[in-house]
Design goal:
single chain, mainly alpha, 3 strands, about 65% helix, elongated
Length: about 170
């Protein structure tokens, strides 16, 4: 079997045979990049089928996994969502207009505003996450559980080496 990366490697092998020993990073990283594009495409379609954007799904999941009362400050959402403060504000505004989140003042410090899931979005997020897990499982179906575990460990090692060790 052969994929697009094999074709790329083949082209470089023909054009620059002296580089063949150094092409091994392309074998891995080009596949990660290409898989990321495939995953992005699937996630966009998954969200769009539910009249959501990928970023909105991300915020719903982040708030839900934070535990009751399913609320965080916008500042706490920024690192989890990997966006700027302006982007998070715009996203929250759109989600609030859809009835998915609400802004609530903190009882202790009225200057602090938390973004909280609404009753409607808690139920939506429950079913959405179950669908999301099934969707992810379908994407990984060509791999057996042992291959998934090996891949997960290898990617964990790379992420740790790159400094991606926390969502905060």
């Amino acid at each position: 079997m052969s994929d697009a990366v094999d074709a790329i490697i083949g082209q470089w092998t023909q054009e620059r045979p002296e580089l063949v020993p150094g092409l091994w990073p392309v074998e891995v990283l080009a596949r990660i990049q290409r898989m990321n594009r495939i995953l992005d495409k699937h996630l966009k379609a998954f969200a769009a089928e539910r009249d959501l954007e990928v970023g909105e799904v991300d915020i719903l999941f982040t708030l839900r996994r934070s535990g009751p009362p399913y609320a965080l400050t916008a500042g706490a959402l920024i690192p989890a969502a990997m966006v700027t403060s302006g982007a998070i504000t715009n996203r929250i505004d759109r989600m609030e207009a859809k009835g998915l989140v609400e802004r609530v003042r903190d009882g202790q410090d009225r200057r602090t505003v938390r973004i909280r899931l609404t009753e409607q979005s808690i139920a939506l997020t429950e079913s959405l996450f179950e669908d999301h897990l099934r969707h992810y499982a379908e994407l990984l179906a060509p791999l057996d559980p042992a291959a998934c575990a090996t891949l997960a460990q290898a990617l964990r090692t790379l992420l740790e080496a790159g400094g991606d060790t926390s969502i905060t």
